[in-house]
Structure formats: structure tokens, C-alpha cells
């Protein structure tokens, strides 16, 4: 693969990996969670072997793929709008083929081909290795579909082609699927049962990234805490494993340790954690290794025990507090972010106040906050009426967002006057004279460029802040540079 420098829509320079001799052009865009962006890199790799290089120009594409999200209705509406755009382009590029990937493809299946005439190809998250076959059907003029969910597939044998890459940070997927069955969530239906990737193939990818100049990896999964490798197969079948398999199994804390030791200068992050599955050995491993970043994304969704029960979240607010207090006791400067839903069915004002008081207890660094969006096929959709009025959902969501902004500022102000190690990722959005990077806590830090470059670890003295960004002055290279 050769690397070329290109620019994305935001004018940021990015590295595109291209295969010499490939003549076909693939335009691929992704929506939703980081898993989808990581999957698109798997798809680009599979198609690179079929003669496709990626292009940033939609009009030039032979094949257009959109990796879809189904987490909220709005996400699906966004995809339908993109398909209209492709329709217009197809008028000037009639041989262009269009395919849909990801969770919406898995949720809608054949209906996608019926409802969206421009779509030639529908492929679910576990069927990307079948793309070459499906494309040959499409090129013979037939629609093609594969939405079979797998019990084994982890794409551990595929070396991703980095897309939209800054050449410094990368995602490494470690598990697929989710067994938790939260009542509002489509993921278990669109991504199947939990299975973990072989730690050896994960370490190979981490070492390969380091050899290519990457300085930070994020270990990725819908629920990284339930990572468990015992030779392959579903997490839920672990009980049937042999005593030897059980004795030699690798859990998430062990995997973190393996990655941290494999590349001691590589920053290690992970996402997404789950309060019901997170264990103390993960926190203790974070304490043990300086290159594991002090940041945890720990969704909670609600602060009310009654609503947590209705959501089938297998923990109480008290157990969540205990986990938070343990994290803060062992890693006092650990940053924590949240996912929160306002207006879940039957949510009362009192439940909402429980959510606000939970946020007061934690004072999160930042969060992803949304009003409840009923998803077809989920238990909440089948059994619970979406009874909280839209304006009440919105009012409660605004209160959650405002409180988060107040706490975000409280947390960034804790960094004033401190010296933070920052990994430079790109130019600041607001000023070309400034670099933008992140500290160990995953907070964005902006400072004057001087002679530093993308990929440098720099010590920055924090002089000012907003509720989401730290502003500072460079003091010199950090020992990790
Ligand atoms: S843990 Fe719950 S919310 Fe997260 S992906 Fe699994 S089912 Fe969905």
C-alpha cells in the first residue's frame, strides 16, 4: 500500500492508503459509532484486493458505499437524504453502483432494496467478506444482499486500510456484537452476539500501527469490558469451554496489559465501557501502566433506579456510584464521560431529577446526550408506550446538556496552571497557527504551532479553557516523544 496526502471536506490534510495498480474507485462514507468507522476500514481493505482504491470525489466513484447507523430515527433519515444525493450523482455517472452497509442495512434487510431503488447492494456488519461475490452479482445487473449475522466473525485476519487518517491515532476493534439487551437499543439485533478477537491478531495490528508511525490506539467494542478470548466462539458459550480454555482465557484487563507492554510508548485508549461488566482489575491495570490513558467512557443512560430497571441496565445508581468512587480513588485525575437518554417511557420528573443528581455526584468531563428515540424491534418498542411528550423530552434534555456544560467547565478549570502531555493530531479548527491534540484525559488542547509537528508529544502549560477545550503554551517535547 502507498500513502498519499489528500484533504477531507473540512480542508484537513489526511493520509489515504492506495494500492498500486488498482483502477476502480470506491467512495465510502460512515455514520454512527466508531465501530462503523473501523468497519469501513475493513471494507476498504477487502475491496483493495478487488482493485478498488478509495476516493474523496463522489462523482468519480465506480462504487459508493454508505456505512449506516440505526441507533436513532434521525440517523436513518440522514442516510435516506444521502441516497437522494447519490441519485442526483447517478444521473451524471450512470454506471456507479450504490451499496448500504452497517446497522440500518441489517435492520431493514430486503426492505432497503424495495424502499430505495438506487440501492444495488445491502450488506450487514458480519458479511463484509462476501462483498467480492455480491459485487459480481451487482455487476451482472442483479441486486445483491447478505445480512447473515455470524457467531465467529471478528475480521481479525483483515488488515484495515486507514480512512480519513491523521496518521497518528487509530481504532483497533477487539470485540463484535453485544449480549446486554438494553431495552431501548437495536445493537444486539443489528450486530449479533458478543465475540472477541484473538489477542495475537490485536497485538499484530498494534505493533504494525506503531511501525507505521501511529502514536495512539483506541481498543474498540460495543462493550469492551466483556472482552473474553478463550480460543474463539461466543462469549455466552464460555461455560461450555474446557478447563484449560478457561484457565488460559484472556479477559479485558489482561488484553490491556498485553497492549501496554507491547508498545510502552504507544498511548492506549478504549471504548465503550459498561458499568455492569467493568471490573476492578481494569482500573488497577490503568494505574499500573502510564501509557494507558486516564479516561473512561462510562454510559449510564439514567440516574433513576426505576428507569435503569426498565432499560434492563444490570446495575443500580448506588452500584454506579461505587464504581465511580473506586475509579476516582485509584485514579483521581481520571476523566469520565457519559451517555444519557432523556424521556425514556414512563420517566417522571422525579426520575429526571435522579439523573441530574447523579450527574452532580460524578461531574462528568463530557457526554453524549439524546432524547429517547423509539427503535423498531426493541423490547421498549414492543412492550412500552413512548409516553413522554416530545417537548418534555426536549426540556429535560436541555437541562441535562446545560448541567453537563457547567460540569465540563468545572472539569477543564481543574487543568489551569498544570502542564499536560499532548499528542498533536492536526491544525486547530479555529486557527491555522495553532495545533490541536488531546491530553491523557481525552480533552482537546490547543496551542501555538512553533516548530512542532503532527505526531509529537509536547508538554503544554494550560493557561485558559472553555467548557470543552484547554488552551496553552508549549514548554517543550515530553519524554515520550
Ligand atoms: S450495552 Fe446496551 S446500549 Fe450498549 S450496545 Fe449493548 S445493548 Fe446497546
Secondary structure layout:
Layout: E1 2-7, E2 13-18, E3 24-30, H1 34-48, E4 52-54, E5 63-68, H2 73-92, E6 97-101, H3 102-108, H4 110-115, E7 121-123, H5 131-139, E8 144-146, E9 169-173, E10 175-176, H6 187-191, E11 195-196, H7 199-211, E12 216-220, E13 228-229, H8 243-247, E14 250-251, H9 252-262, E15 267-271, H10 280-288, E16 295-297, H11 305-310, H12 317-330, E17 335-342, H13 349-362, E18 366-371, H14 379-383, H15 390-413, E19 419-427, E20 434-438, E21 444-448, E22 457-465, E23 469-477
Parallel strand pairs: 3-4, 3-5, 5-6, 6-7, 7-8, 9-12, 12-15, 16-17, 17-18, 21-23
Antiparallel strand pairs: 1-2, 10-11, 13-14, 19-20, 19-22, 20-21, 22-23
Helix pairs in contact: 7-9, 9-10, 10-12, 13-15
Bound molecules: iron/sulfur cluster (SF4).
The share of residues in extended strands comes to: 15-25%
- Main pleated-sheet profile: 6 strands, parallel
Annotated CATH homologous superfamily of the largest domain: tm_1862 like domain
- CATH class designation of the largest domain: Alpha Beta
Q: Count the beta strands.
A: 23
- Class from helix and strand fractions: alpha/beta
Write structural notes for this entry:
The radius of gyration is 23 Å and the shape is globular. The protein is α/β, with parallel strands linked by helices and 481 residues long. The chain contains 15 helices and 23 strands. Helices cover 34% and strands 24% of the residues. It has a six-stranded parallel beta sheet, sandwiched between helices. Strands 19-20-21-23-22 form a five-stranded mixed β-barrel. α10 runs parallel beside α12 (317-330). Bound molecules: iron/sulfur cluster. Iron/sulfur cluster binds next to α6.
Amino acid at each position: 500500500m502507498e500513502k498519499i496526502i489528500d484533504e477531507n471536506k473540512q480542508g484537513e490534510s489526511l493520509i489515504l492508503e492506495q494500492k498500486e495498480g488498482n483502477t476502480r474507485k470506491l467512495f465510502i462514507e460512515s455514520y454512527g459509532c466508531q465501530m462503523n468507522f473501523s468497519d469501513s476500514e475493513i471494507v476498504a481493505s477487502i475491496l483493495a484486493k478487488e482493485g478498488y482504491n478509495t476516493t474523496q470525489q463522489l462523482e468519480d466513484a465506480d462504487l459508493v458505499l454508505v456505512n449506516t447507523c440505526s441507533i436513532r430515527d434521525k440517523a436513518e433519515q440522514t442516510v435516506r437524504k444521502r441516497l437522494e444525493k447519490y441519485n442526483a450523482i447517478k444521473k451524471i455517472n450512470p454506471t456507479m453502483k450504490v451499496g448500504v452497509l452497517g446497522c440500518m442495512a441489517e435492520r431493514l434487510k430486503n426492505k432497503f432494496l424495495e424502499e430505495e431503488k438506487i440501492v444495488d447492494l445491502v450488506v450487514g456488519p458480519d458479511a463484509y467478506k462476501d462483498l467480492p461475490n455480491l459485487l459480481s452479482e451487482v455487476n451482472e445487473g442483479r441486486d445483491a444482499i447478505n445480512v447473515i449475522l455470524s457467531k465467529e466473525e471478528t475480521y481479525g485476519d483483515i488488515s484495515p486500510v486507514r480512512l480519513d487518517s491523521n496518521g497518528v491515532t487509530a481504532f483497533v476493534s477487539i470485540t463484535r456484537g453485544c449480549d446486554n439487551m438494553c431495552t431501548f437499543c437495536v445493537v444486539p439485533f443489528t450486530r449479533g452476539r458478543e465475540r472477541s478477537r484473538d489477542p495475537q491478531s490485536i497485538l499484530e495490528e498494534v505493533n504494525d500501527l506503531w511501525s507505521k508511525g501511529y502514536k495512539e490506539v483506541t481498543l474498540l467494542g460495543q462493550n469492551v469490558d466483556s472482552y473474553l478470548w478463550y480460543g474463539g466462539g461466543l462469549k455466552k458459550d464460555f461455560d461450555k469451554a474446557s478447563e484449560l480454555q478457561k484457565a488460559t482465557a484472556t479477559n479485558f484487563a489482561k488484553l490491556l496489559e498485553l497492549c501496554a507492554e507491547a508498545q510502552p510508548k504507544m498511548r492506549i485508549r478504549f471504548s465503550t465501557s459498561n458499568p455492569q461488566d467493568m471490573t476492578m482489575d481494569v482500573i488497577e491495570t490503568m494505574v499500573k501502566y502510564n501509557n494507558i490513558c486516564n479516561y473512561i467512557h462510562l454510559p449510564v443512560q439514567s440516574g433513576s433506579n426505576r428507569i435503569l430497571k426498565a432499560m434492563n441496565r444490570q446495575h443500580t445508581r448506588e452500584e454506579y456510584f461505587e464504581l465511580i468512587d473506586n475509579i476516582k480513588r485509584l485514579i483521581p485525575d481520571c476523566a469520565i464521560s457519559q451517555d444519557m437518554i432523556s424521556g425514556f417511557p414512563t420517566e417522571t420528573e422525579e426520575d429526571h431529577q435522579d439523573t441530574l443528581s447523579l450527574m452532580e455526584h460524578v461531574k462528568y468531563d463530557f457526554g453524549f446526550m439524546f432524547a429517547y428515540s423509539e427503535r423498531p424491534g426493541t423490547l421498549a418498542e414492543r412492550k412500552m408506550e413512548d409516553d413522554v411528550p416530545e417537548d418534555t423530552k426536549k426540556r429535560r434534555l436541555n437541562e441535562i446538556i446545560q448541567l453537563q456544560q457547567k460540569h465540563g467547565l468545572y472539569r477543564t478549570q481543574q487543568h489551569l496552571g498544570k502542564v499536560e502531555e499532548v499528542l498533536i493530531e492536526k491544525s486547530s479548527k479555529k486557527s491555522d497557527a495553532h495545533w490541536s491534540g488531546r491530553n491523557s484525559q481525552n480533552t482537546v488542547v490547543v496551542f501555538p504551532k512553533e516548530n512542532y509537528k503532527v505526531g509529537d508529544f509536547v508538554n503544554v502549560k494550560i493557561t485558559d479553557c472553555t467548557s470543552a477545550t484547554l488552551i496553552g503554551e508549549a514548554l517543550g517535547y515530553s519524554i515520550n516523544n
